[in-house]
Amino acid sequence: MPTNGLHQVLKIQFGLVNDTDRYLTAESFGFKVNASAPSLKRKQTWVLEPEPGRGAAVLLRSSHLGRYLSAEEDGRVACEAERPGRDCCFLVLPQPDGRWALQSEPHGRFFGGTEDQLSCFATAITPAELWTVHLAIHPQAHLLSVSRRRYAHLCPQEDEIAADSNTPWGVDALITLIFQNRQYCLKSCDSRFLRSDGHLVWEPEARACYTLEFKAGKLAFKDCDGRYLAPVGPAGTLRAGRNTRPGKDELFDLEESHPQVVLVAANHRYVSVRQGVNVSANQDEELDHETFLMQIDQETKKCSFYARTGGYWTLVTHGGIQATATQVSANTMFETEWRGRRVALKASNGRYVCMKKNGQLAAISDFVGEDEEFTLKLINRPILVLRGLDGFVCHRRGSNQLDTNRSVYDVFHLSFSDGAYQIRGRGGGFWHTGSHGSVCSDGERAEDFLFEFRERGRLAIRARSGKYLRGGASGLLRADADAPAGVALWEY
């Protein structure tokens, strides 16, 4: 499979939470650091970088400032260094409970404290010098075994998660990381949790919770007995092995999960490449040959469609569409026009893609009619986590409304009907729009929402009023945005 940005390893960004549940924060004013923030936002996001030539030493860079945390010999700390020096080097010492102790590599003292009283002068580790790692990336991704170079996916028949897939294809390859009680659970696409013995369970019990460790930019998952998840046996079943230290077998990459979609034409048949390279609407069921990976270019906002058979849709002679391109080019890019419950695609020749009488697709139309409209269905998000500019979408405590500025997230269930989506939350209540644009989560009946995939990794959600869902200063989810941009776009 060509890369072309299809397999993007996610840069691991995270927050550090101290013993009083406050996040390490880098301030712009004076480049000071404190531990006062109750939630994970931009100022609380950090990146771990190796320091070449200094053994196990690492650097902590503020994503917000682009500067490095440093500790002087007298214990004073700041986040001012634009280039890392000797005082910026730290050792990460994982503790048995999964928390980190950060030790100044040149001075040997430990970093900790509360509020604005942070220092790196402690000679021993106490609770004040311990930090919990909270990932700041979107928690839905693909999990790649570093040693086997295979992707983890749900195996429903064997009732397990196995790392034996060459490509992260279909809904089964979606893994959702659930952060709770300072640990992480691995949730499969059918909403079950991976227990350390390899079994899938419906509740996040103690043996289904893991602490995270980083090694050379990779992730390891340690269970409550101090053993690490690894692919085991010929099938690559994920479960805790014997090792109490993470080696190559215990390391994983998280990769971006692009939307995978199916399209239905006006003849009510699925667009497919089952019968060859020609892209045609001629199938009655959706399987691998009817599923396409949809990738959106960040600059042009045009999209490409990649087939399981190994080729991108591309414009060929006389306007035909074939799944034969091995590289992204102008001819593989399509403009999307969102038309309510349907979508139209315009090819690089300036013409719309239509379904011909024999079912084959061709970019030969100057106007949009019934044959130029398709139903587009997202298939690899049966469970959904949404993040806006200010944070994640989560139920507001004691209310039927939804927050949009939280550092923790709720997982919502998605269903699809005739070009629209229905969103179900905690307790089984459906999202619905109320008076003055409010969005509530306790509906007895499903309300239709339209998804528009506007940017790479971001979508807009349109309510029945025609307005878009947005976050805002109030921190509440509302359906009152006129345009699908800014606070009306959501990572998914």
From TrEMBL:
CC terms in the record's Gene Ontology section: actin cytoskeleton; cytoplasm; stereocilium
The Gene Ontology biological process terms listed for this entry are: actin filament bundle assembly; anatomical structure morphogenesis; cell migration; establishment or maintenance of cell polarity
- Mainly localized where? other
Q: Which residues form the Fascin-like domain?
A: 21-133, 142-254, 266-376, 390-492
CDD domains (alphabetical): beta-trefoil_FSCN2_rpt2 (cd23349), beta-trefoil_FSCN2_rpt3 (cd23353)
A Pfam family reported for this protein in Swiss-Prot or TrEMBL = Fascin
Which UniProt keyword terms apply here? Actin-binding, Cell projection, Cytoplasm, Cytoskeleton
The keyword Cytoplasm belongs to this UniProt entry's keyword annotation: yes
Q: Which family does it belong to?
A: Belongs to the fascin family.
Name of the featured protein: Fascin
- Native organism: Camelus ferus (Wild bactrian camel)
